Amino acid sequence: MRDPAARAAALRRSEIRVLFDAAARAGGDVIRLEVGEPSFTTPAHVIDAAARAAHDGHTRYGPNGGLASLRELLADKLRRVNGIEASIDEIVVTPGAMNALYSIYVALLQPGDEVLLPTPGFPNMDETVALLGGRPVFYRLAADEGFLPDVEALEAQVTPRTKVLFVNTPANPTGAVYGASLMRDLVAFAARHDLWLLCDEVYDEMVLSDDCVHTAAAPLDSDGRVITVCSFSKVYAMTGWRVGYVAAPPGLADLLRKLQEPLVSCPSTISQKAAEAALTGPRAPYEQMLAAYRRRRDVALDAAASAGVRAVASDGTLYMLLDVSSSGVDDLDFALRLLEEHSVSVAPGSVFGPAGRGWSRISLAAESEAIAEGVRRLAKALQEQHAERPSNARRETSP
Ligand SMILES: Cc1ncc(COP(=O)(O)O)c(C=O)c1O
User: Fold this and answer.
1) Edge-to-edge order in the sheet of strand 319-323
2) pTM exceeds 0.85
3) 239: Cβ below 6 Å to ligand 1?
4) Is residue 202 a contact partner of residue 231, using CB atoms and an 8 Å limit?
5) How many domains does the chain have?
6) Which ligand 1 atom sits nearest the alpha carbon of residue 121?
7) Distance of CA 175 from the midpoint of ligand 1 (Å)
8) Residue 182 located in a structural domain
9) Are residues 314 and 224 part of one domain?
10) 152: pLDDT strictly greater than 60
11) Is residue 52 domain-resident?
12) Confidence of residue 1 (pLDDT cuts 50, 70, 90)
């Protein structure tokens, strides 16, 4: 589309932000389930390390691609958690994963290049691709298939312009964790069509189900086409510190490092020192957070089951999808009404692309009691909405 300024002007504002602002305006009594970040504050040892770093003079510009000391620690983390062997030159630290993804698309896309994106999926991706003149092409994840990609269906969406396959595991907003055999198929698919495979693993250490493990794409790749994006935001409760990182094949890593100069200069030095403390300090705070998310996931599932709302059990992340299609109204209208009449805010599913329609995403960042009460009120709103619908509309959608 047209020129960059026109593309910028055409950018939509995220409806999560619309809900977020409306919930904030509504004040204190609202049960906030739309939030996309941990409820926990950054652990004290990380904050202390940042303060120490500032006093010790880590207040200046750093290297474009991040401090070598942090990248050393990240090489170890990538090996341990993701099974990825990356040298420190193949790791680039960025101000959050969002900036990493933006820089990667800047480096890879030419106008009209197509990017295969999941729906329901992380909303900022299609906007970023469109902003840079690329063409977002959604591939649908079906609830009945556990919200996992169907490689056969993907085959039909490849064109000569397809450049990148974007995958996200554990996945926002579905909570799906992709297994090893699916990951192998996705890497083979990317190789067959000579695509980049951009694997967003920002929830890599947030696996909630005992029978699931996180599988990274890069260790399954033999020809340097996988790019891995991770973040400190969710796993380490550090959203506001803005630290993400990329593991990429050497040529691309060099390019990303070069791009940092005109885009952001470098990531925050103090935040990087905080990130180092998150990697080297005690694990207990993170284990406690994960245990809380697991408990809250079970609370949400129980509440949904008792209230008769269809929920999709999350195997990972801090989110869960609830089926609100029986309301018969658009999921944004449903979310706004839920907020207005029942003081519960949720993220409307259509924010996550066309296949998000008819779903609401709740966040496990709230306390258990708030989650249970929020789900009960959502069920009530669904019943009211359903009862209000004209009988012919009901007939149209009844099986
Ligand atoms: C799948 C996914 N990728 C990337 C991000 C961005 O993370 P960061 O805070 O590191 O920019 C998010 C944030 O919600 C996300 O859900």
Assistant:
1) 311-312, 319-323, 359-363, 347-348
2) yes
3) yes
4) yes
5) 2
6) 1
7) 14
8) yes
9) no
10) yes
11) no
12) low
